[in-house]
Amino acid sequence: MAPVIGLAIGRGTGAELAAVFERVLARLGQLYATEIDVTRSPRIYHSYSSLRREGGIERIRRLTQEDAEHYELFCRTQARHGVPAIFRTAINAQSLYLVRQRLQAVKVDVIAHQDTSLLLVRDEAQGFYTGENSHSPGTVTRTMSFSREITEKVVSFALRRARQEWPDRGIGQVLMAYKFHLLDGALDEWVAEISERHGTPIRLCQPDTVNRNLIERDPPERTVIIAGNEWADIMHVVLLDRFGSERQESRCTENIHLRAEVAGLTEYQTVHGSADDLEGRDAVNPVATVRAAAAIAERHAGCAGAVRAVERALRSVAERGIRTADLGGRHTTTAVVDALLDVLEPAEPDHTPLTGRTVAAEP
């Protein structure tokens, strides 16, 4: 039976990147003699820019809720049918975070370069990025929460994932970057209890403290940073630039759902947004989408070696100067993908942890 992969498409450049994803996934399936089926969500989800074009606040609120409800149902349905992964292009953050709150999601990225290795686990299930809005004349009130249960789930997941990434060498340190001074000491108590229960030291830090330490010195190898999105959303691209020699336009990442009903379903996305200003121009950088297709093919569709094959092809294309304008090139999205598919060949799998490998495709 052919593996099935979910596909959810947002507005902006979503349709163009979905086409890139399907082309690369299909080619990898051919190379590895594996038929891969794709099931699309029937709804095209809004970006923030497309919502703004729809009109006033009440209409935006309604469409935001409709997108969230539809995408949540799509995720739950795929999980129920045993679909292991979904590739999603960028959609409106407010809709997305409603789903992440309900499905208790974390975003995972291993940022590795030379002697630095960071596991960043972004807590997407609680905090300011989650919650509900209520409106009164001239005022928006946002209500959100933190809970011991969700904090325990996020930390437990992060420790498990770190041990999978570094099975032989162990964890160097565990930091939590949260604005805990605003929570009456509750988060301090929860983290202390969790740390003792797991037998692992965990330092709960203010975000500015983490930033200061990162400026003063590189973190120890195999550092785990568990962070609320209030800090991690901003710092993710900074960490990529400083410790991974990467730009967000070329990076994909994964979201893991911790709620039991959808456990086992992984959502892949580009780190960059919907790029509505590039819609229809055949100009969006396809590298992050290409990498997502490779990761999904290797991890969820039996194409062992797909990641190494794609990284080798990306390097070949970059060395020939074939790149989109954001990387200083003059090629279209289609031209970059065509060139990549022309040189893409099977490769043996790399047995180092997949999320920890990055081969730069940029000059």
From TrEMBL:
This is Isocitrate/isopropylmalate dehydrogenase. Transmembrane segments: none annotated. One of its GO terms (molecular function) is oxidoreductase activity. Residues 4-340 form the Isopropylmalate dehydrogenase-like domain. It comes from Goodfellowiella coeruleoviolacea. Its cofactor is Mn(2+); Mg(2+). Keywords: Manganese, Metal-binding, NAD, Oxidoreductase. InterPro entries: ICDH/IPMDH (IPR050501), IsoPropMal-DH-like_dom (IPR024084).
